[in-house]
Write a structure and sequence with these properties.
With about 230 residues, the chain is mainly α. The chain is built from ten helices and no strands. The protein folds into two domains: about 40 residues; about 170 residues, no CATH class. α2 packs across α6, α4 crosses α6 and α6 packs across α7.
Length: about 230
């Protein structure tokens, strides 16, 4: 997620600087356009998590945020290998359960302030860092889920079960768009893998290069979730 945040920050700063330069060239003091520069879906997702409003992405059909949530969070919940095998051929509900989805939201709400601080202030001493909302003690010790976090998970699970059941057409619309995007991504990745060359100059399949650290990434993500 840090890589995605960094990429969005670079794009945001470029657009901000371009608009400032344009204002200077036009001798304009209008700063209203600066407020409309898009932060990017990952930043928006974290902002929603900070306000416990991630479910708004479904109600307001924020497809870019739903896709980011799916490929950055849910993919790690179920495991990258499973995501890579199924996301481009199956609809989300065929391999992501309501429980997976709920846990993904809880993980974001639990860690959003912590992850944001790690990104903005990577050199901050450990004693001064923000702690996870429900799964970390004040002194950084005793990693276990408090009752509030478990209750939040159960509420979210019931809400998502109800949403999938009562708003099936809307949810199917999200699934189809994610499937389309992942199919395009997979097609592009396959083309790139065909051109992977090893140190001997031989063309090889890139799958092994991409999947060596999948289990380590999943373990690290779940540890960070508490």
């Amino acid at each position: 997620m840090k890589i995605e945040l960094k990429r969005e920050k670079i794009v945001y700063n470029e657009r901000l600087n371009n608009q400032i330069q344009l204002n200077i060239q036009n001798n304009s003091n209008d700063t209203s356009l600066l407020d409309h520069i898009d932060e990017g879906p990952v930043h928006k997702m974290l902002n929603l998590a900070k306000e416990s409003r991630l479910l708004d992405m479904y109600e307001e059909k924020m497809i870019d945020i739903i896709h980011v949530f799916s490929r950055l969070v849910l993919a790690n919940i179920i495991g990258k290998r499973k995501w890579n095998k199924r996301s481009h051929i199956l609809r989300l509900s065929n391999y992501i359960t309501e429980s997976d989805e709920s846990f993904g939201i809880v993980c974001l709400e639990n860690n959003c302030f912590k992850w944001e601080q790690e990104f903005n202030s990577p050199g901050l001493p450990k004693k001064d860092r923000v702690k996870s909302k429900w799964s970390e003690g004040e002194n950084g010790q005793g990693r276990y889920w408090r009752t509030e976090g478990m209750m939040r998970f159960m509420v979210l699970q019931k809400t998502i079960e109800k949403y999938r059941r009562e708003y099936n057409e809307d949810y199917r619309e999200f699934e189809d768009e994610i499937l389309k995007r992942e199919t395009e991504t997979n097609y592009n990745n396959v083309r790139k893998r065909r051109k992977v060359v090893n140190e001997n100059g031989d063309i090889v399949n890139g799958d092994d290069n991409n999947n060596d650290n999948v289990s380590d990434e999943l373990e690290d993500f779940l540890k960070r979730c508490g």
